[in-house]
Amino acid sequence: MFGAVVGEQCLCLRKLAGGDRAAEVGYGEFLANSRVTVSRLIESWSDLTRTAAAGRHVLAIQDTSEIHFSTRPKHRRGLGEVGKGNAHGVLAHAMVAVDAEDGACLGLVTGEVYNREQRVKTPHVKRAPKDKESKRWSETAEAAKPILAQARMVTVVADRESDIYHYWASAPAPNFHLLARMMHDRATADGAMVYAATADWAFVATREVEISATPDRAARKATLSLRFGEVTIRRPDGPGMKHLPKTTTLRLVEALERDPPAGVEPVHWRLLTTHVVDDVATAWLIVDWYRMRWIIEQLFRLMKSDGLRLEESQLETADGLMKLTAIAAKAACVVLQLVQARDGGAQPASIAFSQTEIATLDALNGKIEGKTAKQKNPHRRQSLSWASWIIARMGGWDGYPSSRPPGPITMRNGWEKFNAIAIGWALRDVCIL
Question: At what angle do helices 384-394 and 408-426 cross, to 10 degrees?
Fold first, then answer.
């Protein structure tokens, strides 16, 4: 089913089955099977990621996406509220592993897919961290530690919603760092507030950077001014907080666009991290690592409107939709890896393909390559770029360097053909009596 999802780039069971009623029923029964759980599907996310992370500095980027499904007042499909309560669906919290040096996607790590079955009546401020939905930031970081144990270093990257004292005070470990954007002003150990205490810091460097596009913002270049230093934040009052240290020392890296174009909201990032930041070069590294956070947004777009169209699914139950969301996340990650690899790189094919699949690719490469040098696979054998070239050729790309690079649709078409061949290849030595 996973291969069909990647190949068809959709999550409509009828289309996945290709008109085969038995297959369609089988997919439905798989998702309805109580022994097929969301947690087990999420465990499978990291099957190849564990090995791919070995020896690297990994950026473990985590975020949450709302998956909206169409419902009616009398037919909510068991789905809870998302957003501000004006829509229904599930939430997908995912962590993706990225190589800190080149931004290559190494695969999914862990996460959670959940459904808000009912509203919580206890006010947020009166709940302990363990009783808040925001605990997913800390729990996902903890779950990632054994999965990424072979990495040389891990930096967990997240946006403003993860700026929680409990997270800063409990998640870090040796060679396991945090990096997140500040959500709000914080009290310091001496009773001041962070914004006021750092307002007089001098800007020490300036650099032009690429700002990635978002649904609300076009991609553009921005000239950022940089300053950095150390801050010690104070533990807030509240339930379930007294076991945490009274203060936590972090480093603040601030990047500000001081002269934005007319009518454009300036870029202003206050980034907190557990890394030691004692020079300009390291401070810019922190900024660059945070900028790679857009990769997980790209993953979510591939799950939804830009790829698998998850939100169009007509499955009748929330349980089935959550399982489908977990499958969609892994499928979208494979497509992302293939698109990333199309321009070259040194990542091995094993970060996205099993050894049986790599053997299939090896056999196919000789049949797909043309006779001229321009029609040969230009990438190192058994690299991810080599595999991406084969999949793209199977999807209809002509392979010429002068042609437009293959996109997600081409990769989808190629994967569909490859998946069918790979299944047959895996059965080649099976003896049927």
Answer: 100
Burial string for 35-57 (b: 16+ CB within 10 Å, else e) reads: ebebeebbeebbebbbebbeebb
| CATH fourth-level superfamily of 47-312 | Transposase Inhibitor Protein From Tn5; Chain A, domain 1 (3.90.350.10)
> What pLDDT is recorded for position 279?
98
Which residues make Cβ contacts (< 8 Å) with residue 40, sequence separation at least 6?
Answer: none
Give ranges for CATH 1.10.740.10 in the chain. Answer: 344-426
Per-residue pLDDT reduced to its tens digit, 238-263: 888 999 999 999 999 999 999 999 98
Topology, domain 344-426: Transferase Inhibitor Protein From Tn5; Chain A, domain2 (1.10.740)
How does the average pLDDT of the chain come out, rounded? 88
pLDDT tens digits for 162-219? 999 999 999 999 999 999 999 999 999 999 999 999 999 999 999 999 988 877 778 8
Q: If 0-12 CB within 10 Å is exposed, 13-18 middle and 19+ buried, where does residue 156 land?
A: buried
Tens digit of each residue's pLDDT (9 = 90 or more) over 369-409 = 988 888 899 999 999 999 999 999 998 999 888 889 888 77
CATH 3.90.350.10 location in the chain:
47-312
Which of helix, strand or coil describes residue 364?
helix
Closest of 402, 375, 381, 399 to residue 389, by C-alpha: 399
What is the token pair recorded at 287? 């900024």
d(CA 164, CA 152): 26
